[in-house]
Amino acid sequence: MTMTSNTKPKVMFVISGLGAGGAERVISQIASHWTRGGMAVEIASFDAPGDPEFHHFSPKIVRHQLGAKTTGTLRGLAKLDNLRNLRRLLKRSRPDVVVSFLTKNNLLALIATTGLAIPVICCERNNPERQEKHPAWNRLLAIAYRRARLIICQTDAVKRCFAPSVQDRLRVIPNPVSAWPQARVSTEPPRIVAVGRLTEQKGFDVLLDAFAAIKPAEAGWRLDIYGEGPKRGDLEAQANHLGIAGNVRLMGNSETPGSWVEHADLFVLSSRYEGFPNVLGEAMAAGLPVIATRCDFGPAEMIENGRSGILVDPEDSESLTKALHRCIKDTALREHLGKQAKQAINAFSPARVMREWDAVLVETLSPLPRTSRDAAPKIEEPAG
């Protein structure tokens, strides 16, 4: 189907679940935008009916919770169930295009659409070089991505992670960052805020080392870390060992998207790697002064160092400590960085980003000339 004023396509998103993640937030924004444009939008996820949804979705958006997500020894069987359930749904619903988010979901979507003549847009949301994947996944992805209609990256830099055989179908679309509607409230003591899943990727252990070095009890600042994850116990033990437990709070997930902004005075992104850090964009949109690592990928394309934020090397607690000292001691610097950050993030406004997604959808639904990609190796079609 080619999109015209008289024919609106049916789009199906594929995602693991609809919790408090960055990919989930982006899906909610794109899905809402296309629904307002009169398109039929469905979302297939591998969580179970009744599992919580963190973001708002229009009642016009059809939800399919395929319900095979699990862990441990049943993980492999669950993935087969996910694949079968998704393929059955695709045969029944017959969307005009599938938009999948996250690496493993991309592979499942590409296999599930085999033989169905449904184009797939695959969205990579992290650093493919740093994600832990079984070698078998890498081999399958190398073949499967040659069947993708388009592959969406979040930054130009991440394009280096993809094979030459798919470079012609890479498109770069950053995440949309909305103007921040919530008013910030001055806090006492003032707060440094960090946000993310409590994993090795986010570098909160480095942040704790840097925070301890500024002697927070003397400086009069507190560190609040929002998020949940497997490193909670390690981070709590580290804070106790460093003697800063009284100045550090692990806040869990925020009650609503972005509510952590309200009481923040300084935002820190300490990640070892990223794809495109939504929380950094949210902090900048709220006019917060920001310190971020110059990690692959994202922060260096969002921040002009020294003007709209401060960039430091990843895993460099000494440089991070120096940046914290600068911002804590200089109120004028914090005000300047926050003002410039708010202006700089306009480049990622939802209106601009949604126009890029509209263009990608038109391109995907346009007739595809026969090329060498048609001869790409096929993946055996699953049963069902």
Structure characterization notes:
With 384 residues, this protein is α/β, with parallel strands linked by helices. Helices cover 35% and strands 15% of the residues. It is built from twelve helices and 13 strands. The chain has helices at residues 22-36, 75-93, 103-112, 135-144, 204-213, 216-219, 232-242, 278-285, 299-302, 317-329, 331-344, 350-365, and strands at residues 10-15, 40-45, 62-65, 97-101, 120-123, 150-153, 170-172, 191-195, 222-226, 248-252, 266-269, 290-293, 310-312. The chain has a seven-stranded parallel beta sheet, sandwiched between helices. A six-stranded parallel beta sheet has the order 10-9-8-11-12-13, with helices on both faces. Helix 1 (22-36) crosses helix 12, helix 3 (103-112) packs across helix 4 and helix 5 packs across helix 10. The protein is elongated, with a radius of gyration of 22 Å. The relative contact order is 0.13.
What amount of the residues lies in strands?
15-25%
Shape category: elongated
Tell me the distance between the termini.
Answer: 25 Å
Major sheet: size, sense and barrel closure?
7 strands, parallel
Biggest sheet, strands in spatial order? 3-2-1-4-5-6-7
Strand segment tally: 13
Unreliable segments (pLDDT under 50, ≥5 consecutive)? 372-384
**Protein structure class:** alpha/beta
- Count of helical regions: 12
Q: Please state the average pLDDT score.
A: 88
* Proportion of residues in helical segments: 25-40%
Following the backbone from N to C, one meets helices and strands in this order, namely EHEEHEHEHEEEHHEHEEHEHEHHH
